[in-house]
Write a structure and sequence with these properties.
Order of helices and strands: HHHH
Shape: elongated
CATH class: Mainly Alpha
Number of strands: 0
Radius of gyration: 15 Å
Distance between the termini: 21 Å
Number of domains: 1
Length: 126
């Protein structure tokens, strides 16, 4: 089992970070009129997943707080999926890319749900 020293060592963080970077790069091609709506929203929600994972990791001492922050991550991941649906509907991205990114967030959500079910696995040992 890998040693986890920081949130950056978490596979779920790495997945979320890679997805957020990909979303940032693909939204560069979105129309200018989407700059303050879809582009901004999808970038914010995808980045928020990463930021909330980092915050959750630092709250491991308090399992309820840890789980609450992970639930925020799940919500932000779901929001990102919704923005991906809009991007697909408006033909800003193709179905193949949409499906791949959407599935990536399904995997992220799955890992986060598993973490919420066993917070003691991630907390400090007493």
């Amino acid at each position: 089992m890998a040693i986890i020293n920081t949130h950056k060592d978490l596979i779920v963080y790495q997945m979320a970070f890679e997805s957020a970077i990909e979303i940032y790069n693909l939204t560069k091609s979105f129309p200018k009129e989407e700059r303050y709506s879809l582009t901004d929203q999808i970038r914010r929600s995808s980045r928020s997943v990463c930021a909330n994972i980092a915050e959750a990791y630092r709250r491991r001492l308090y399992p309820k707080s840890f789980v609450a922050k992970l639930i925020d991550c799940i919500s932000e991941s779901s929001e990102t999926q919704t923005w991906l649906d809009f991007a697909l509907e408006f033909n800003y991205i193709g179905a193949k890319l949409h499906n791949r990114l959407y599935e990536s967030y399904n995997n992220i959500i799955g890992k986060l749900v598993n973490m919420t079910k066993r917070p003691e696995k991630w907390s400090f040992k007493n």
